[in-house]
Amino acid sequence: FLVDKGNHRHFMEKEIHEQPEVISHTLAHYLDFVEGTTRALDLPFEFKNLDRIALSACGTAFLASSIGKYWFERLARLPVDADIASEFRYREMPLSKNSAALFVSQSGETADTLASLRYCRREGIPIGAIVNVRGSTIAREADVTLPTLAGPEIGVASTKAFTCQLSVLASLAVRAGVERGTISPEQERVLVRHLAEAPRYASQVLKLESQIEAVAHELARYRHVLYLGRDTNYPLAMEGALKLKEISYIHAEGYAAGELKHGPIALIDEKMPVIVIAPHDRIFEKTVSNMQEVAARGGKIILITDKKGAEHATINAMETIVLPDVPEIITPIIYSLPIQMLAYFTAVVMGTDVDQPRNLAKSVTVE
Ligand code: G6P
Q1: Active-site positions, per UniProt (predicted)?
Q2: What average pLDDT does this structure show over 353-365?
Q3: ipTM of the prediction
């Protein structure tokens, strides 16, 4: 069937705007909003019998998996190895019989992810696939398909598939916590309610478009950009850097904020802006210290935070993008939007081919 851009200049822009709707569809598949509960899933394993999950994927799907690791470990006390599939397939990771493997893929056709799935098949552990394309090879070869309901994604740079992958992983982690007894029925209701608020907050953040476009005009003047974040915002910092380099061809790196002093601080000067992803959470003050280190070296800061963070950040940022204060579990989903929009508008300013960036393919079916 035919997918068109509607009133949008690019598929990427359209797909960014579809997020409130597709996140809502995806969450509804895993959560019962009326009952305030996670849905029971027909899985080839029981969460309460697992001692480890191996999560593998490529590109943006790997970064979603890396965020999923924080959720499974924190909410369900279930250890997770999040691996780049091209590494996992050759790494010969020992897998106990109490392990399960999950593979995350928009297309369901990525060669390295598929090879990793086949490794786990040979090892005889149960396999789940979080995929966007039903009937794809990865979906067919898994024991269970956990769909993302993002609809067709045309832009090479993944946007809505990413936030739908996050929606599935968060819902699954809550379900795992319920089944493992680390989340009480009361906590389950609160978490489900928080997840249910994601589409509404996502719509609010889309309204920041004109401010983010203005920041992009600024960003487009630079050749190198550093993204920093802690906790789930660390993989999100890497995702921000990935999006920017993919479509604007500006060199960008994403780092754990605590690693700043172990290397990237050597690069900081007025020519390398630093994008800091920092909601006002329990480690916010640590990130503020990192921003002070950047500022002391003449580095320019673009801070993406919430209302509380904007009040408490004792630094002079070049730009501050203020998001609503959102529940902790949905921060990675909501903070994905300004990251995507910033990359999108920067690429538009640079005049690159946003939907089909040079040298990249939507689906990488060769090794
Ligand atoms: C390519 C695409 C990325 C995607 C990655 C993994 O590199 O350009 O957007 O994240 O493959 O693809 P998958 O379909 O497995 O999610």
Answers
A1: 362 (for fru-6p isomerization activity)
A2: 89
A3: 0.97
